[in-house]
Amino acid sequence: MTKNEFVKVLSKKANLPQEQTKALLNATLESIVEVVKSGEKLLFSDFGTFYISNRAQRKGRNPQTGKPITIPAYRLPAFRVGSTFKKAVNELPKKEEKQTKQTNAKNKKK
């Protein structure tokens, strides 16, 4: 799903015009970047946490020459999924659950 498609979904759900929804989404995303960039964790209860993961300097190899190189330390934005979000994604509707069990049973026979 693209950002514009998501704006349409969000616009309908929030009962807001698409332009207003797009502006709100852009402001939200920019704010998330600013907060995480400043080094703060951003916690949305039961949804997840945005944070910075610090990667240490390490040794590596240049794949073209094979010579050893030093890979500098860097910061990486990260997201840890919350429990409610994780459960929601892993819940299968009853019909899909039956199909999955049948597919697994067929695969075991092969």
From TrEMBL:
Pfam families documented for this protein: Bac_DNA_binding (PF00216)
Region (Disordered): 90-110
SUPFAM superfamilies: IHF-like DNA-binding proteins (SSF47729)
One term under GO cellular component: cytosol
Record SMART domains: BHL
Biased composition (Basic and acidic residues): 90-100
Comp. bias (Low complexity): 101-110
UniProt entry keywords in alphabetical sequence: DNA condensation, DNA-binding
Any one GO biological process: chromosome condensation
Gene3D superfamilies documented for this protein: IHF-like DNA-binding proteins
One function term, GO molecular function aspect: DNA binding
Family as reported in the entry's similarity comment: Belongs to the bacterial histone-like protein family.
PANTHER family on file: DNA-BINDING PROTEIN HU, DNA-BINDING PROTEIN HU-BETA
UniProt protein name: DNA-binding protein HU-beta
Organism whose genome encodes this protein: Desulfurella multipotens
